[in-house]
Write a structure and sequence with these properties.
Number of helices: 4
Structural class: alpha+beta
Helix content: 25-40%
Shape: globular
Oligomer: single chain
CATH superfamily: 7,8-Dihydro-6-hydroxymethylpterin-pyrophosphokinase HPPK
Number of domains: 1
Order of helices and strands: EHEEEHEEEHHE
Number of strands: 8
Length: about 170
């Protein structure tokens, strides 16, 4: 079994419900959820002309290889209604593999750790909550240090489902 860290995000439809459904499917099909961050809300990164995202980091214990995990994630996203039209477009669900233990993987289809971790506050804030002392295997810095050094100006706030219906 391996510990794997995933980022779940949604900015289409009922965002909070989408995250909850994705978590249930992750637990059922990918591996037991060991830890999870709070849910955070942020403006869309990369393409700001779309609705705000809700994001959450989950750490799972999985028996799947990284390649098989990626296959199942893509299938799960499709099952939930994700349609890939253009990069950084609005989506019902997005699941990124951030970390797979301390492994370094670079193939045509998969790069682990996720290469954009240090550039994205919406990733680093929830990741620091569940793994702040984890040392990034490629950069040699803790997630907390990467968060302090991050230049991404987008606000990342804890989301309360009572505040909004989606």
């Amino acid at each position: 079994m391996s510990e794997c860290t995933l980022l779940l995000g949604s900015n289409a439809g009922e965002r909070y419900r989408n995250l909850a459904e994705a978590e249930a499917l992750v637990q059922k099909r990918l591996g037991k959820i060991l830890k999870q961050s709070a849910v955070y809300e942020t403006a869309a990164w990369g393409n700001p002309d779309q609705p705000d995202f809700l994001n959450r980091v989950v750490v799972i214990d999985t028996a799947l290889t990284p390649a098989r995990l990626m296959e199942r994630i893509l299938s799960l996203e499709e099952e939930m209604g994700r349609i890939r039209v253009k990069k950084w477009d609005q989506r019902v669900i997005d699941i990124d593999i951030l970390l797979y233990g301390r492994e370094l993987i670079e193939t045509g289809r998969l790069t682990i750790p996720h290469p954009l971790i240090p550039e994205r506050r919406f990733t680093l804030v929830p990741l620091a909550e569940v793994a702040g002392d984890f040392v990034h295997p490629r950069l040699g810095k803790t997630i907390s240090v990467l968060l302090r050094e991050c230049r991404d100006p987008l606000s990342v706030q804890v989301y309360s489902p009572r505040r909004g219906a989606s």
